[in-house]
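User: Okay, second chain of the day. Same drill as before: sequence in, structure tokens out.
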Amino acid sequence: PPAGFELLYQPDVVRLYLSILTESQNFNTLEAAAGALQNLSAGNWTWSTYIRATVRKERGLPVLVELLQSDSDKVVRAVSIALRNLSMDRRNKDLIGSYAMGELVRNLPSRQQRSAKNLEEDTVVAVLNTIHEIITDSSENARSLIQTQGIQKLVAISKSSQSPRETKAASHVLQMIWSYKELRNALQKDGWNKSHFQVQV
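Assistant: Same drill. Structure tokens below.
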């Protein structure tokens, strides 16, 4: 039977955290539960690989994606980082790219305003880093990003954000998108050109 730290990596624990994420209304509790899954799914060792697959099998991805709609800055940040770690699993990456991209993009500020929730810099950077992880090695996920009107927001952040960290993170996403040659025709049809995707930092 499992003992010590191995107790943290059992399916029952994943089910417990997912139950909390489904039922709790308390932002602090939601942030803590998402943060726990974030930590358990981090890195490349055997247990975290197992946790990433377990979250998917326990239907946890839709629970996390729904929480991207939260009005709490800290919940959105914790959930974004958890999704980033979970997307290190290839199957998760495909699913998250298909079902979470729209919600991730909605959390980014537009040229007119910060996001509707006025998210903090750390949270915007977390969302951008999650998008970067999701589109890495996946032109299909990059295509999803284009279809959710994400390019407009990314270019606005890279050109006009007051935060060097946001600018850098957005520029990395843009650079990754441009690296997919098969997407360039679609991008150019939408009025974008290479200069929009060059790193600004």
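Residues 174 and 197 are 5 Å apart (CA to CA).

User: Thanks, on to the next one.
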